[in-house]
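Hi, here's the filled form for the chain we discussed.

Project: internal
Contact: R.S.
Residues: 386
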Amino acid sequence: MTHTSPTDTTPAAARPHTHTTAPEAAAALQPSAASQPAAPPPNTSQPSTSQPGADRAGLSHETGASASGSRRVRARAVARAVAVRLLGSLVVLWGAATAAFLAQVAQPGDRATTILNLRSGQFQERTAEETAPVAAEYGFDQPVLAQYVDYLGGLLRGDLGTSYQQHRPVWDVIAEQLAPTAVLSLSAIAVAWILMIVWTTLTAGRAPWLRGIGSSLEIAAASLPHYWLGVILMLSLAMQLDWFPVVGGGAVGLVLPVLTLAIPLAGFLGQAARTDFERALAQPFVLSARIRGLSDTGVRLRHALKHSLRSPLQLSGWALGATVSGAVVVESVFSRSGIGRVLVSAIESQDLPVVTGIVILIAVIYVLAGLLVDALTLTLDPRRNA
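And the returned structure, exactly as it came back:
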C-alpha cells in the first residue's frame, strides 16, 4: 500500500518524474544559511575553563607583580625617610660645631692672653710681642672666616682642637675619662628599662586606683632633677643608713649614681609605654590568649609587653644622650671620674676647646643614637614585611 501525504492531492502518475543526484539531495536536506540561527560570538570576557593551570599561573603572576610593586614603593619610602634623617643629622652636627666655634670666638678678652695666663698660672696683661707666637700657633691672627673653615676641616678629620690648659689634643683629654661615663650611662639605661618594665607590668591595666598611683609616680619620677635626687639618695642611703659608700666603692659605689640617672628616665619611659600597654590589653588576641588558659602574668609579659615597647624604644636614642649629659651633674655630685668632672674643670679654667669638644661629642652621641633607634624601629616594625 502506498502512503501519501495528506497535503499531496496530485496523483502520482500526474507528477513529473525528476532525477536527483546524491549531492543535490544532500544539499536539499540541509537548511539554508538564512534559516539557520546565528552562532553566538565567542565570549572573550570569561576565562576559559579548559586551561585552569594557565589561569592560575596568570593570577599568580599578577599577584607577584603587585606584591613586588608594593615592596618597591615601601623601599622608596624607607630610602626617602633615611635620606631625610641623615640630612637632618648633618644639619644638627653642623649647628653644634658652629655654636662651639662662635663660643670660642666670643670669649671675653684675648684668647692668646688667656692661654699664656693658663700656662704660667699668672693672670696679667700681656704685650703684643708675648701673644704673637701663641696667636700664630693657634691661628688667631687669621680672619674669622678662615678660622671657621679650618675648624670645620679639623672636625672632619677628628681633630677637636688643643687644650689651652693642658696643651694636649682635646680628644686625648676626653678619651681618658670616656670609659667611666660610658659605663655609668649604659648601666643607667639598663636599670631604667628594668624599672619601667616591672612597674608598667604591675600597674597598667589594673584597677583605676592602682593605675592612678602608677601614672602619678611615673610623672613624679620624670620630674625629679638629677642634682636634687642625687643629694637625697646620698644623704639617706649613704650617710644615714650606710648602705652604700659616699665616694668610690667600686661596683657598689656605682649604685647610687646609676639610680640617680635611672629613676627619672624610667618615669619618661613608663609614660610612653603605659598607653600602648593598656591598649594592647584590650585587643582581641589578648582575649584569645586568656580563653586558651594563659595566666594574666603570661598575657602581660608575652603579649601586651611586646606590643608596648615601640615608643620606649624610640625614646632610647634621646635617653642615651640625656644620660651622657646628665652624667655631667651626677659625676660632680658623687665626685666620680668621667667627662663631667673634665667639663667642670674646663669651665672653671676657661679651657674652651675642651668645653666645646665635649659639647660636640654629646651632639654626635645624640645623632648616632637616634639613627640607631630609627634603624631598629624599621627592622622591628611588623608592617615592614606586610
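Let me know if anything looks off before we file it.
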